[in-house]
Amino acid sequence: MGPTGWPLQSDTNGNQVSIFATIPSDFLCPLTRQIFNRPVTIETGQTFERHAIVQWFDKGIRMCPITGQELESLSIPDINRVLKRLTDNWKSEHCKTLISESTCPEENLTATFVENVLSAECEMSEKLEKARHLMAIGGIDFLLHRFHGEGKDEKA
């Protein structure tokens, strides 16, 4: 575990980096800094998490948060299915990578690990951000896989 309380994994150079450092920047909403779940692309070509751009428009702001360009329409476009598929596939593959790299018990992303990450001495807002990041990269899927796998071993 790194100094920030986040688990580490090796990058392509063998350096230890946070599991969140590997999230492609194109998969992150510029407003929420979270990985896309329901990405929408507005008329300027910029992509945002749907709920974030809805909140932006609800404030009555008629310009793109990134380019500053005035928008002709505040209608919310359909989900960008290509980007959604890419981010969903990345999360799934990242979860598989976490599973395959968890070779010794102390490195496993388990309930104890999650508890340690979320109970670290930090502000509640930081804990919430850590929880959101954990969910965004497939941490819930990882935990379900781990618990499901452990349950099978115990029954055998």
Structural features, described:
It is built from 5 helices and 4 strands; from the N terminus they run E-E-E-E-H-H-H-H-H. Strand 1 and strand 2 form a beta hairpin. The protein has helices spanning about 50-60, 80-100, 110-120, 125-135, 140-155; strands at about 10, 15-20, 40, 45-50. The two termini are about 30 Å apart. The protein has one domain: 2-Layer Sandwich (Herpes Virus-1), CATH 3.30.40. It is mainly alpha-helical and about 160 residues long. Residues about 1-10, about 105-110 and about 150-155 have low confidence and may be disordered. A two-stranded antiparallel ribbon has the order 1-2. A two-stranded antiparallel ribbon has the order 3-4. The protein is globular. This is U-box domain-containing protein.
Question: In summary, what is this structure?
Answer:
The protein is mostly helical and 156 residues long. It has five helices and four strands; from the N terminus they run E-E-E-E-H-H-H-H-H.
Query: What is the highest CATH level, the class?
Result: Alpha Beta
Strand order of the largest sheet: 1-2
Corresponding CATH superfamily: Zinc/RING finger domain, C3HC4 (zinc finger)
Main β-sheet description: 2 strands, antiparallel
CATH architecture: 2-Layer Sandwich
Regions with pLDDT < 50 over 5+ consecutive residues? 1-9, 103-108, 150-156
Number of domains: 1
Q: Structural class of the secondary elements?
A: mainly alpha
**CA radius of gyration:** 18 Å
Count of alpha/pi helices: 5
> Separation of termini?
32 Å
CATH topology group: Herpes Virus-1
**Elements, N to C (H/E):** EEEEHHHHH
Give the helix level as a range of percent: 40-55%
Q: Got a strand count?
A: 4
In terms of DSSP E residues, the strand content is: 5-15%
The best one-word shape is globular
Mean pLDDT, rounded to whole units?
Answer: 72
